Amino acid sequence: MKKLAALAAGGLAALAARRYVAMRYALAQVEPELRSPVLPFVTVTHSAKTLPALRLAYRVTMSPGPGVDVVTRTVGQPATRVLVITPEGHRTNRPAVLALHGGGMIVGSPQLELVTHGRLARELGAVVVSPDYRLAPENPFPAALDDSMATLQWMRQNAGDLGIDADRIAVVGRSAGGGLAAAVAQRSHDEGSTLRAQGLMYPMLDDRTVLNDDDEGRGRLVWTPESNRFAWTAYLGRAPRMSDAPAYAAPARRDDLSGLPPAWIGVGELDLYYGEDVAYAEKLRACGVPCELITVPRMYHAADGYAQKAQSMETFIQGLVNHLRAHL
Fold first, then answer.
1. Are 100 and 150 in contact (CB under 8 A)?
2. Residue of 46, 117, 301, 327 with catalytic role
3. H or E element at residue 285
4. Domains in the chain: ranges and CATH
């Protein structure tokens, strides 16, 4: 028994040592201003075992900052809780933004992203609406997309009460929310109501990335290949396969992107999604869709959330704001 315990302890020690070395190497690749002491702790593999604790962590409420009001509404069927962030001061015919939170389709909440939502509301003078869409694996595709589309429909039908112009709506999202935003842009176009703009922050677009064995060293911080595999499997209700995925589930699979709204795509060069995001931007351009692509050297996934004061992250977010302002 003692021998087995010693072997187990030795195995754990070796595993911890390998993880330490791998983390040191990953951090060494990061731009110094983007390094954060929390990175080793937030680089956690998402799995059935870790999901309950991660979901609790992702329910934290952030502050939207000054100059905005935040109220909670319920829309759609099944009922979806949404946050409505409105700039202070009564106005009508404001532009609006449908903002979709990240979290791999399996975790996350709108209140965790109130810092960005508040900024968009203030700087654009826009009403920002963010749904607490249903999560996988309990609610696989198309639940999250249906909730997002129901929220968009509610915004249009209640434009007067919200004080918005129903013809001046953009969609934005980060990570999984970016993938949802791309899907919303596609489906809205197909249903005859094209949006003004789409802003995709390091979006989760292509399930086939899971099947790529050569990630070129990307995805070592925050969002890993293992988490990506678990998330896509949960969202699709099955393991990804090269042959197919349901329409709108993986927006990068769509061939004809013509007629979609002008896009802004931002991603870091250390991000697991770098390849699929660059490819989607190139496909948009090839289909005649204006697309501004921002790639940030030595930036990992969601770095703007962990290094908010870094100048490169300020420039990154301001680029999104400028894109939306130009089209709203």
1. no
2. 301
3. helix 274-286
4. 40-327 (3.40.50.1820)
Distance, CA of 172 to CA of 320 (rounded, Å) = 9
Residue 301 is a catalytic residue: yes
Q: Is 232 left (phi over 0), alpha (psi -120 to 50) or beta?
A: alpha
Q: How confident is the model at residue 16 (pLDDT cuts 50, 70, 90)?
A: very low
Residue among 132, 207, 271, 277 flagged as catalytic: 271
Both tokens of 235, joined, read 């969202």
Q: In this structure, what DSSP letter does residue 62 have? A: P
Tokens in use for 151?
A: 């929220």
Query: Which of 279, 308, 183 is CA-nearest to residue 318?
Result: 308
Nearest CA to 307 out of 317, 293, 292 is that of: 317
Contact assessment for residue 281 and residue 201, using Cβ atoms and an 8 Å cutoff:
no
Q: What's the pLDDT at 18?
A: 63
Considering the candidates 36, 109, 148, 175, report the single residue annotated as catalytic: 175
CA distances from 247 to 44, 61, 117, 141, 183 (A): 30, 33, 28, 10, 9
Catalytic residue list contains 175: yes
Q: What percent of the chain has pLDDT over 90?
A: 89
Q: pLDDT class for 217, splitting at 50, 70, 90?
A: confident
pLDDT at 3 over 90: no
pLDDT tens digits, residue range 24-77?
A: 889 999 999 999 999 999 999 999 999 999 999 999 999 999 999 999 999 999
